[in-house]
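Morning run. Coffee first, then this:
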Amino acid sequence: MINKINKLSKSEFIKVFANIFENAIWIAEELCNQKPFDNFEALSSKMLNIFETATKEKQLKILNAHPDLANKTKISILTPDSLKEQINAGLDQCTKAN
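And here it is:
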């Protein structure tokens, strides 16, 4: 599988990894420039390193972009991945009492 990832074009790679960090396509772009990866651990390590070495401003922007769990008032602005995560966790079924 890592070989398939290494062979992705830049646009395909970015499409796959663009939302690993909420609304931070720049991480996927930078990660793509670090191909090839020896294994999944190397890919993960490089991805985390990009985040950890980013400016505090960029880190906060990512953290603040992550949706609040079960905040139905913001459901319309969730990314497809976040919406799927919340639905799979049953958070779309929560009531105010929950």
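The domain at 2-64 is CATH 1.10.3330.10 (UraD-like). Good start to the day.
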